[in-house]
Amino acid sequence: MPLKLDLLGERIAEMVQASAAENRGRWVERARQLLNSVDPEELRAKLEERVVRLPWLVAVLYGNVNGAVEVRGCPSSFSVVAADGSYIAPDRHSPLRFYVLNTGYAAFSYGQHPSALLDSSAQLYFQEQDLYLDPLVRSAPVEGARLSAKMCLAEMRALLEAAEQVEGRPLVALRDGSLITWGLQTEDPAFVQEQFLKEFLGYLDRFHTLGIPLVSYISYPGARDVVNSLRVWLCTRHEVDCVTCPSSGAQEFCTALREIRDRDLFGFLRDGERSDVFGSKSAILNRYGPHRIRFLYMNVGGEVVRLEAPQWVTSDSQTLNLVQALIYDQARRSGTYPPYPPALQEAHEGAHISVSDRRLVQLLVERSLAEEGIIYGGSAKSGSKARRGV
Amino acid sequence: MRIGEIVESSSTHFVAESLDLRRPPELGRLVKVHLEEGRDLCAVVCHGETGSLDPGRRAVRRSTKEVYDDRVYREHPQLEHVLRTEFTSLAVGLLDKEVVHQGLPSMPPPLHYSVYGCEKEETTRFSQDLYYFRLLLGVPVRIPVELVLAGHLRWVYRERGHDEEWLQEAAREVANLLKQDYERLATVLYAIERDT
Question: Is A380 a residue whose pLDDT tops 80?
Fold first, then answer.
């Protein structure tokens, strides 16, 4: 039965009207004025003082909160490497439990000797130790956040292997998505987090040893860390407690700020400019050791993106300038608008698993089962969805 | 010289992916597929096309004020990997050791086999008999077939060392085949006269 769009039409109109009524543009302008008026030292002190009681993630300030750094020129020759991944999750309607991780990478060298390497690699996991983090008691199955974590490790491995193949220097390694492993925060720290972080931080160590700056690129970021810091700046109470906050001008402004994201706030950055570096208060980062992740915002020419990198990348101004220049150069080479780094785009293309490829994997499994005399067409539910008889 | 690999095959024609993105074989050129020792399938290139490797993606403009034409490929090295050039060739016969058989092959050439450019000697030998012009004119292709034939005549003429005698004979054969269709005949003869 087709979706009854007429039922949704009115609600869509209401939703758009409600969004327009918020008059976000006015609040964004006020938020930027506030950003310019903030005393960084005082805000830093206020955040330090209140950090344990804050209900939101806030940005830790290292430089000027409203700083803008112009982009420098690129070296005459340089390289960029990127990796991405996608997966086929375990299907409970399949007779066999397995998952597939597919990683793609792109390594481009520019300048004197331009070249490109594009490749992908697929792995199928079906053994007990692949399917469960604790295979002995079959607990902590690899699905959801744990599967995403496995995917993240596969991407890091692909990125490192690709980077090691590239001779051209300087070289910057790019990843899509966050380097802050938010998804693991609710997992068991001693067991799940430990297993994952040991390998993950091993890759960060390797990049550090090789002297290759690792950066994650987040397009259309939804984070509010810096905006949340401004809310703390506005807050006059000793303890942040929004429920009992009395109605006032500041309270109204603070409520409006909830709808504003950092990407809106940093819309003042001009093409190629980046913000100062901020720190994240995410609890999982306490386990990152020397690789604590920091972030900044950058206008790549059509979009304000969030860049995340280990502190050994962001604390070196020369390296950070190089990263900024190479990412801006990637944006300029993009064939789309708003721009997106071609290296990440091609890595994504290599990693993408199409619907037909997913179906093909399923068919291969069914055919292999049939060769062993096991005829299984999947569950009745999945069969009814596939055939949709009338 | 190996110039492509067959990615689509049928009784009348095959499509090959060019090994060189920017240098597909010329329209009308004679190419061959090595089927077995001493036995090659011959075909005439009738169409060429460059586009995205992935049918879901389209090529987009890459040039700027400073970077255009050949420099686009230097500044975007991935293009060599994500674009592809294909050419279609019409099967016209077999070179079976020393014997030339003009006509459609008994079966399509195998997928993924290599496509080679014919040497001058092979072109000369194959084009001695002009019967295969009938095959060229009889198969529907994506561009007017008389333009493919004109391109082929020009190319063979050059390969045969500007052989005027062969060209006159070929023109007479085309005139005979297209005597009922003056417009198409004029198209071929005009193209030959202009370029040779």
Answer: no
The structure's pTM equals: 0.85
The verdict on a CB contact (< 8 Å) between A110 and B75 is yes
Question: Is residue A119, in this structure, part of any structural domain at all?
Answer: yes
Query: Span A354-380, mean pLDDT?
Result: 83
Judgement on whether residues A283 and A377 belong to the same structural domain of the protein: no
Contacts of B82 in chain A (CB under 8 A): 118, 346, 349
- What 3-state class would DSSP assign to A74? coil
Q: How many CB atoms lie within 10 A of CB A35?
A: 19
Q: Looking at the 3D structure of chain A, how many domains does it have?
A: 2
A132's tokens: 């469960």
Judge: B78–A349 Cβ closer than 8 Å, yes or no: no
Statement to judge: residues A274 and A363 lie in one domain: no
- Chain B contact for A342 (CB, 8 A cutoff): yes
Average pLDDT in chain B: 92
Residues A174 and A285 both lie in one domain: yes
Instruction: Give the closest of B54, B61, B75 to A349, CB-based.
Output: B54
pLDDT of residue A370 exceeding 70: yes
Contacts B81 to A, Cβ<8 Å: 116, 118, 346
Helix (H, G, I), strand (E, B) or coil at A297: strand
Structural domain harbouring A96: 78-225+257-353
Query: ipTM score of the complex?
Result: 0.75
Say if residue A213 is in the same domain as residue A172. Answer: yes
Instruction: Report helix, strand or coil for B30.
Output: strand
Residue A134, Cβ density class (10 Å: 0-12 exposed, 13-18 middle, ≥19 buried): middle
Asked if A364 and A220 sit in the same domain, the reply is no
CB contact under 8 A, A115 and B77: yes
A348 and A378 belong to one structural domain: no
